[in-house]
Design brief:
With 221 residues, the protein is an alpha+beta fold. The chain contains eight helices and eight strands. The strands form three sheets. Strands 1-2-8-3 form a four-stranded antiparallel β-sheet. It has a two-stranded antiparallel sheet with strand order 4-5. A two-stranded antiparallel ribbon has the order 6-7.
Amino acid sequence: MNVELIDHMGSDLTVVNAARVSFAKESEAFNDKDAKLINYLAREKHILPFRHPTISVRCKAPIFLARQLGKHQVGLTWSEESRRYIDSEPEFFFPDKWRKRAENVKQGSLDEEFTGYVETEEQHGVDRGPQEAAELAVQYCSDLYDDMINAGVAPEQARMILPQSMYVNWVWTGSLLAFYQLYKLRTEHGAQMEAQHFANQLEAVVAPLYPASWAALKEYA
């Protein structure tokens, strides 16, 4: 998974001046007084000024995670590559470890690693670890996709057999506040581990652009 900065607009000063405009005032250079104002805005939940800075990032994640992240709509715009038009070799995600299922469905998984075996009838009843079984299944789907493309099947239909572990790339643009709210939700206890990893990468890109604002939002929002 990956998050890369494309472009951004504004700075901590943008937040400050969006707030000061109410009094027809403006700061020309960020100072300690402005930092205190940012903390005040976040602490008192005056969050509108944090919507003015804008960030564009290029993201790469497996489909199953991208579809979770795509639920974040407010203040964000998403443009994704389409396999209707491309037929390049797909890439696939595999976890560092396969986790055990949690009894609480809302939790999703445990930190404990699954070390058992998966009996797969499609693979002649052989018991395999989840990693080996997944690699075989993904390889079959990938090979079948290539065969369909080479035979002349339309990419928009051939793509249907590719698994949810396939990586997709997209451009994501939104406000500082929108990306912070995504970060906050996807790093909470109970969020899927892969979503937490993505959110931490997002923070590593965005936080240095607006250090005072990001710190204030983490502290108070």
